[in-house]
Structure formats: C-alpha cells, structure tokens
C-alpha cells in the first residue's frame, strides 16, 4: 500500500513538472505540496526528453550563470560556493571554494522540505552559502545532484553521497571471505544510479589468486573494471591512487574488508581508524560510523561510508533487474513473453543462454535469488 502511494505521488509530481524533474534521490522524499518550493531551491534536476539524466554543469564562481536550459545557478554574488564534507544533524561541514572549512546551518525553507528533517543535504552536495565567519555559515541553495548513491533504510531512501563518479565496491578475498553475490548487488546499484562501478578485491596477500581468475574474467567481460589489491603489501595501491585522482568516489563494502586501510594506503597521513576483524563473526566491527568526504591531495575526493552490512536495493522492481545486468540484458528481447522474469517461463532466451554458458551460471543464480527476494517483498507491500 505504502508503495502504491509513493508511485502515485511520483506520477503527479512528474506531470506537474512535465518530466523535467529527475526521478530519484532527494526529490522523492518530499511532500507533494513542497515540490514547488524545492524546485526553486534545488536549481532544476532535469531529465532530457528521453528520460535520461543530464549531467550537472559545474559552476566555477558564485556569480549568476545560466546553463543551456537557462537555469540560474547562483542568485547572489555574496554567496560562497562549496562542497559538503559531512553532515551532523542539521549542521554541515562545508569546504568553501576559498579552501576554508565552514560550519553551516541549513536555511529554514530547505529544512522544512524534509519530512524527517534529514537528508536535505548530504555529503558531496555542491552548495552556495553565506558566512560571516567559518563557524557561522548558512546554506542558501543546493546545486542539482548527479550520481547519487542511496540505499533503503527502514523502507525509506537514504542518500549516502551525491555527485559521485565512481562506486568503489570493495570486497576482500578473505577475512571476511569473498561474496560475489554482494558484488552483484552493488553493481545493480551502480547501474541504477548511473555511477561507474569499480570492483576491488582486497587482501590479496591472504590468498592464492588463481582460483579467482574465472570470476574476475566474468566481471571484466561485462565491461567492469576489477582491481585486486592489498593494503598490507601495497599491491595495486599506486594504480588505485591514480584512478581516483580527480574523481569523486563513493566507497561501498562490508565492514572489515579494508576500506579505511586502502584509503590510508593511497593517502598517507590520512590516519583513518582501522580495527581488527572480529574473530567470532569474521564481519569486522563497523569502525567507520559517519559518511564523510575526504578531499584527496591528488584532486578529487572519497566518500568514506559506514560499512553496509545488509545492502538493500532502493526502488528496483523485480522486472527491472535484468535490464540492469549487462550479461542478461542482450537476451531479454528474445524471450517468448514480454514480461518474462526468466525464472521458470517457457521460451526464455535468458535460460537458454545460461544452459549453453553464454551467461555465467553463478550470475544467473545470483539473479534468481535477488528476484525471489524482490518478489516476496513486492507481494508483502501490495498485500
Ligand atoms: N592481510 C590484510 N589485512 C588487511 C588488508 N586491508 C585491511 N586489512 C585488515 O583488515 C581489518 C579491517 O580493516 P579496515 O580498514 O578497518 O576495514 P573497513 O572496511 O574500513 O571496516 P569498517 O570501517 O568497519 O567498515 C584490519 O585489521 C586491517 O588491518 C589487506 O590488504 N591485507
Ligand atoms: Zn526470459
């Protein structure tokens, strides 16, 4: 029922703005009556005529600028442009274009748009703010977001990071053991959010890499970049450092896989807390608790996110999954039934492709588990 209501809200919302407001991220968490105010404040998240996300244009100075759609980027020359580094309740730490860190509050009109008083501003947001001193800033507007990473938390969308180029999916070869199905889920999120995924298999020093080759080959053949690393002995750390330079990267991965260790390795002197993986459950200890943005010396920044233990997909319906999987996608149009879920239907081109190994059996298995999970969730929602 709750899902139906959200769907209706979205339809009305789109109709009102004639498809100009992008589906997804912050806009969905607002009441319908607030949408108009939001559109004034968040300068026009847009989709093109085909429903594709238009990349955000970067505004270099807080002067009045217009993009090709004629949207004003900054209304006031006294405003400072900045990037949100971290959010603590209703206060944010913002790195100004002038290189100074500012503590900022959120203007009331922005605050009142949020149902739960949270999620209005997230790490990575590009904002314009007013400040008398570094301790006393006021965020006046938020730039349109692109590349938003989110997950579901108690049935609600929780935006983890905004304006992201890469989703760095960090896993470990051992301690905790490799979970390819978890990689598959993060890949779906990356596809869904329109963010390029990079798969990292860390702790290479603990294992013989040869048995991993076939699985790595399957991911690579889909066009995904796969990197094996060791924060311990430095394998591929320089490569990772070069890859992330100048990019905005969100970290994803279970607790204990070595996210903080890898960051410390690529950015010496960072000094992020690292803790031993718990012996009893092999799951790490969730050392990292808040999402923060770490500016890199080589340019760009990394969002250090809390370890995500149970990753739930946001708003991906069972019927959408195969289109988000590059290995299944080419076969879908060959199925006899247009609404084929590729589970037990007759004339299923996906199952045929699995049978003669054109689709990797492990990937298909992962797909089936996911679909079963989503179907039971959808059934519960509409019951
Ligand atoms: N052998 C080995 N151990 C590693 C490697 N990378 C990290 N570790 C160890 O794994 C444990 C967890 O590392 P963290 O960097 O804290 O992991 P994390 O993913 O940031 O964990 P959370 O902050 O809980 O999400 C620590 O004991 C690290 O020393 C590696 O490449 N090889
Ligand atoms: Zn099918």
Helix content: 25-40%
Mean pLDDT: 76
Low-confidence stretches: 1-72, 280-289
CATH class of the largest domain: Alpha Beta
Number of helices: 10
Measured between the Cα atoms of the first and last residue, the distance is 7 Å
**Which geometry do the CA atoms define?**
globular
Please, what is the CATH homologous superfamily of the largest domain? P-loop containing nucleotide triphosphate hydrolases
| Spatial order of the strands forming the largest sheet | 10-9-8-11-13-12
Structural class label: alpha/beta
Number of domains: 3
Hetero groups: guanosine-5'-triphosphate, zinc ion
Tally the beta strands: 13
According to CATH, what is the topology of the largest domain?
A: Rossmann fold
Q: If classified by CATH, what would the architecture of the largest domain be?
A: 3-Layer(aba) Sandwich
- What composes the largest sheet? 6 strands, mixed
- Give the percentage of residues in beta strands: 15-25%
Radius of gyration equals 22 Å
Order of helices and strands: HHEEEHEEEEEHEHEHEHEEHHH
